[in-house]
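User: Quick sanity check before I run a bigger batch. Here is a single chain. Can you write out its predicted 3D structure?
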Amino acid sequence: MRVHEFKIEGDFDRDELLRISSQASQFASDIKLAFGDENNQRIVDVKSLLGMMLLPIHDGSTVRISARGKDELEALEYMCGLFQHHGCAPH
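Assistant: Done. Predicted structure follows.
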């Protein structure tokens, strides 16, 4: 499993979250997004359109994206690129 952590800079709108979810579906690996503190951590399947739509990811949030599967390295690199394109900074 591969993991990368980001600090969110700027809110994601509905269309951006849908685009991320749609692009994640091209990979065979499971891709998860985790956020929150140790006592209240939320984990969402990035390929789930509904899960992504319900994400309360706002400016200043720290998120962890993980990929597990046969193409996990490619999946994680691609997803990291999407978040960095949005202006998110590696944490």
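The radius of gyration is 12 Å.

User: Great, the batch can go ahead then.
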